[in-house]
Amino acid sequence: SSIAHHDGSAEWCFDDERADLRVEDALAYFNDNFGSAAEVDAQEQFDVLIMDCLDPNDDHPFAKVLYTDDGYVTSLHDALTDDGILVVQIGEAVNNRSPSDENGSFENRSTM
């Protein structure tokens, strides 16, 4: 989308030199670069992380790890600067007739 109306920004948001778009295996990237065994370089940390995860009700062998592995979630935290923010899309929004995540098809989301 266009962000050209913001001073100093590129016409297309992913062309902005401040953006570091990565389309890769997030689990491997963050565990390798920011996990407990990694030496974190402050220059490599992110101000903002935006993740579009698998929906928690998707039945993929690795999906549960995205929501339940403490090491992975910690690596996301360690990848952020002190003032960094993490935005995560983890499934559809609930409504007042939806069961709680713990009792419905979004059980994985409740553990994150």
Report on the structure:
- With 112 residues, the chain is α+β, with helices and mostly antiparallel strands.
- 26% of the residues lie in helices and 15% in strands.
- It contains four helices and two strands.
- The chain has helices spanning 26-34, 63-68, 70-78, 107-111, and strands spanning 46-52, 80-89.
- α1 crosses α3.
- The model has no long low-confidence stretch (mean pLDDT 78).
Task: Give the overall pLDDT as a whole number.
Answer: 78
- Principal-axis shape equals globular
N- to C-terminal distance: 30 Å
Radius of gyration, rounded? 16 Å
Strand order of the largest sheet: 1-2
| Regions with little confidence, pLDDT below 50 for 5+ residues | none
Alpha plus pi helix count:
4
* Class from secondary-structure proportions: alpha+beta
Helical residues, percent: 25-40%
Query: Approximately what portion of the residues adopt beta-strand conformation?
Result: 15-25%
